[in-house]
Amino acid sequence: MKPTILIVEDDSRNRKLLTDLLTLKGYAVLDAPNGSTGIGLARAHSPGLILMDIQMPEMDGFEVVRILKGDPQTRALIVWALTSYAMPGDEDRIRAKGCDGYFTKPLDLRDLLARIERHFGAHAQTQVTRERPYESSCL
Ligand code: MN
């Protein structure tokens, strides 16, 4: 079965770019243009990875992560933030908000793809226990 990735991103061009790229690479892609749609898809599909834009109107990515991590049904889902924050200390701040990793925009797509491949490689070996041993490899 194809690994499933959920993209939550309000920018339609970014969303389409990531969707097209990840579909081409063989992933099953779900995409949401806002946080509430993203939460619904996360609950319904338990994707193997969520790529979460932080700057979104109405509900920002941190709020979406707070809700997902506060819900026993979705708290084990792995969420990587996509953000233009790239200052020293931002990594700690982003992790403190519950994200399991982050990527700065503009995205380095080759690096992102490589990390996604590694993530699902680790996932394939550990999915029986649903532990989260790959947190430290997310960055
Ligand atoms: Mn945005």
What does this structure look like?
It is a single chain. This protein is α/β, with parallel strands linked by helices and 139 residues long. It has a single domain (4-122), classed as Rossmann fold, CATH 3.40.50.2300. The protein contains five helices and five strands. The chain has a five-stranded parallel β-sheet, sandwiched between helices. Helix 3 (61-69) links the parallel strand 3 and strand 4. Helix 2 packs parallel to helix 3 (61-69). Bound molecules: manganese (II) ion (MN). Manganese (II) ion (MN) binds next to loops.
Short structural summary:
The protein has 139 residues and is of the alpha/beta class. It has helices at residues 12-24, 35-45, 61-69, 90-96, 109-126, and strands at 4-8, 28-32, 49-53, 79-83, 101-104. The radius of gyration is 14 Å and the shape is globular.
From the alpha carbons, calculate the radius of gyration and give it in angstroms: 14 Å
> Can you count the helices?
5
CATH topology: Rossmann fold
Element-level helix/strand string: EHEHEHEHEH
The figure for the number of domains is 1
Strand content: 15-25%
Let me know the CATH homologous superfamily: Response regulator
CATH architectural category: 3-Layer(aba) Sandwich
Number of strands: 5
How would you classify the helix and strand content by structural class?
Answer: alpha/beta
Terminal residue distance: 26 Å
Please write the CATH class name: Alpha Beta
Q: Write out the strand line-up for the largest beta sheet, numbering strands in chain order.
A: 2-1-3-4-5
Percentage of helical residues?
Answer: 40-55%
Largest sheet: 5 strands, parallel
Parts with pLDDT < 50 across at least 5 consecutive residues: 125-139
Bound molecules: manganese (II) ion
Sum up the overall morphology in one term: globular
Average residue-wise pLDDT? 88
